[in-house]
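Protein: Cupin domain-containing protein
Species: Frankia torreyi
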Amino acid sequence: MPTTPILITPDALEMHHISAGDTVRLGVLAGPEASPVTVILESWDVGGAQPPNSHPASTELFVFLRGRGVAVCDGTEVAVAAGGTLVLPPTSVHHITNTGPGRLYALTLMSPDDGFAAMVRRGPLAGTDDEDRAVLAAAPSAAP
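Structure follows.
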């Protein structure tokens, strides 16, 4: 791990899909090469969802920044929205769906990484726009 500070700015953000055609974009802010906790900005398109997924050894934590949605974890459904934090335990089968009129955004923390950052970075580039950068910078944007 580095011994000097690392600063990632909104302009350096590169959003990816895990697979072509996905409705969720992810940008790695810090991966295992820099931190014991991987930090990702996730953006769900309107109506977007990731497929049910699980992480055998990792706890996944979502801090919702904008929008609203529904999370399902091992059959339990909970509403999520900006300002809320969701913690998903290792081995849980889960997915999140955007139910709001605009994009749903979260900072996602994963520990241990268990290959998550590399999987995101291998995916196709998905484009980064002013709304993504504004959410990360906690600045207002023109989008709803």
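Remarks: The longest strand covers residues 59-66.
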